[in-house]
Amino acid sequence: MTKWFEHFDDLDENSFFLQFLSEDVKMKFPGSNLFIGHEGFNNWFTESKNNLLGKTTHHVSDIQIEETAKDQFDINFKVRYIAEMKDNKIDMNVREDWKLIWDEESNKPLISEYLVS
User: Fold this and answer.
1) Residue 31 scores a pLDDT above 90
2) pTM of the full structure
3) What own/partner pairs with CB < 8 Å and gap ≥ 24 does 95-101 have?
């Protein structure tokens, strides 16, 4: 998670994130509709980066992880998100709920659901 948010804050290339997202990932962020899959992520993140004036900041806290089945996890936590957009500044507290599986083939985590409220 630390690596994930460091790369988000640096507005890294979309490909970094795609390696950790399942092909049919479901994602929802405040102010956007639910989108599915790598194409949905690419569209959302590219548009977001085009509206940002610089790097962002994510402060993560209160992480709770529950293994719901072998190699399947529900993760929820709080995030304070700070960013400067072209038309406004954002400083908000959100809750994130992830469903994550450990992919033994690639030996890395894959997020299958990513909901921010």
Assistant:
1) no
2) 0.93
3) 98/73, 98/74, 99/72, 99/73, 99/74, 99/75, 100/72, 100/73, 100/74, 100/75, 101/22, 101/71, 101/72, 101/73
